Amino acid sequence: MSDDINTTPGVPPVEPARHDVPPIKWEREVLEKLVFATIKEQRANRRWSIFYKVVLLVLVFFAIASYFDVNLFGGEGEVGRHTALIEIEGNIEAEGSGAASVVIPALNKAFSDSGSVAVVLHINSPGGSPVQAGMIVDEIRRLRQGYPDKPLYVVVDEICASGGYYIAAAADRIYVNKASIVGSIGVLMDGFGFTGTMEKLGVERRLLTAGANKGFLDPFSPQSDKQRQHAQEMLNEIHQQFIEVVRTGRGKRLHETPETFSGSFWTGAKAIDMGLADGLGSVDSVARDIVKAEDIIDYTQHEGLPERVLKKFGAAVGSGAMKAAVQVGVPAFK
């Protein structure tokens, strides 16, 4: 009996396994296709990975350049003869385009550029912080003394009221649209009082202070006549500062009446009659007809990529809430 073949009676013989039989052709083709597909996919993934890394590096580069205000294209950043433009949009406050920390660097760049013939402040603002407006006005006065041959003009589209006009009054001339809103030369401090509501609800306010007037802005505590008088005196003082800025800036052009500093506001056409503005005009018309330099270069300090990305992901939510809380009871040009 052979050792390799089963010869059991009634059972068909079994051939021994053969190890030298080549694989079937279609199996080999399938394996080859799978291998090639895997290699192709790996190459594609590698190419996309390189692409994404390059894009990320470019974004990081521009973000850093934007953050540090780097001139990416060489030169001194100066161009030919032109009109320098700076935008002030929205509230005059510590954050935004109306912040002194944003406007002042733009003013310095615009005035120091040898190619700028004049500087145009394009203001659309209902007002805001007396401190921010005052800092901008102080810098405007300093720059006008340092560059006496470079005029500063203000152009108003929709509104230039309160703190916005505080800044505008420091300019050489103010140009408006006939339907613009101009004026509101006044100061306010607003808030709420809930003492009556708390009494009806049976709620007791327990406030401990060191200093008799420390809690006089607390909306849940009654306000005494002395505290109210103190707040009014402070508002009157800031209002007088506002009035002096307008009188100094407008000079003999101002046709002062009892209504001028009442906090009221008027159309652009009426503001011209009152001496609060000098004429009708837009940014383009002022650059073309007044400055005689139609090329306009924007010097506004816009937000860089890091700030935009952070705000997109909600990083500004906390700071916004804090800002809203701090501004309660603060004097404002509005």
From TrEMBL:
Residues 149-291 form the Peptidase S49 domain. GO terms for molecular function: serine-type peptidase activity. One of its GO terms (biological process) is proteolysis. It comes from the Bacteria. Coiled coil: none annotated. Pfam families: Peptidase_S49 (PF01343). Keywords: Hydrolase, Membrane, Protease, Serine protease, Transmembrane, Transmembrane helix. The chain crosses the membrane at residues 50-68. Belongs to the peptidase S49 family. This is Protease-4. It comes from Pseudoduganella flava. The lineage of its organism: Bacteria, Pseudomonadati, Pseudomonadota, Betaproteobacteria, Burkholderiales.
